[in-house]
Predict the 3D structure of the following.
Amino acid sequence: MSEKETPIIDKQCLNQKLSDYGFIPVEVAAMNKTEKIYLWSDLEAFLDLARTFEQKHVFFEYYFYDKDDYIIPESRYKDSHQEYQKKVQERNDLVDQINFDFPSRLTVFIIKDSTLIGVLFDNNWLDKNNILTAEEALEDIDFNFRPQNKTKKEEDEREMREIIFNDPEFMFCKNQDLRFQYLRNFIEKEEHEKFLYLVMPSGSPRSGKAKMFLDKTWLLYQDKLKNKKNP
C-alpha cells in the first residue's frame, strides 16, 4: 500500500490532469469493493499504467478530517469545575481556528476485472501537528488534573520504550499500520501486560491512544538512531 506524505492535489487540478490524459474523471462518495490493490506509484505513473488497461474512467475519492471528532462537546465538561472547563474551552478555541477543508487522503483508482487498482496519497496534517481528537484531548486533560498518577505513567512509558528500542524488529515498522500490528503483538506477551493501560483503548492505526504512543515512540527512536550516527 502506498502512503505518500505529500500535499494532495486539489480537485480542480486533478480533474484537469485526468482529462489531459484522456480519461473521464469520476468522483465517488464511497467505495465498497472488497478486492483492492494499491500501488506504490506517483500519480503520473499510475495514469500511464491505467492507459495500458484501456480504461475510459478514472475514479477518485477525497477524505477529510471531521471537525466534530476534534471539538469536545459541552455536555462532556459543563458540570466540571471552572479550571477544567477553562482548559477544555481553550483547547476547543484552538480547534476552531483550524481550516478543515484540506484533505487528509486522496484515492485515485480504476476498476479492472472487478478489482480496484489504485494509489493512495496521504497527508495526515492534523496528526503531524499533534492535534488530538476530542477523546484523546479529554484523556490528556483528565490526566493533567491527576498529577499523582503522572510519575508512574512516565516511568512505565520509559521502560516500555526502552524494550521497543532494543527490539530489532521495530526498525522495520515504518508506517502506522505496521507499528500498530507490532504493538498488538508486543502487548500479547505476558511480560508486557503491565503496559496495557498506556495504550488502551487502543483505537486504530490512525487515531487513539496507541497511535499517539507509537507516533511519539517512532520519533524518539529516529532521534536515537541519529544520535548514534552523529555522537
User: Anything to note?
Assistant: The chain has a mean pLDDT of 86.
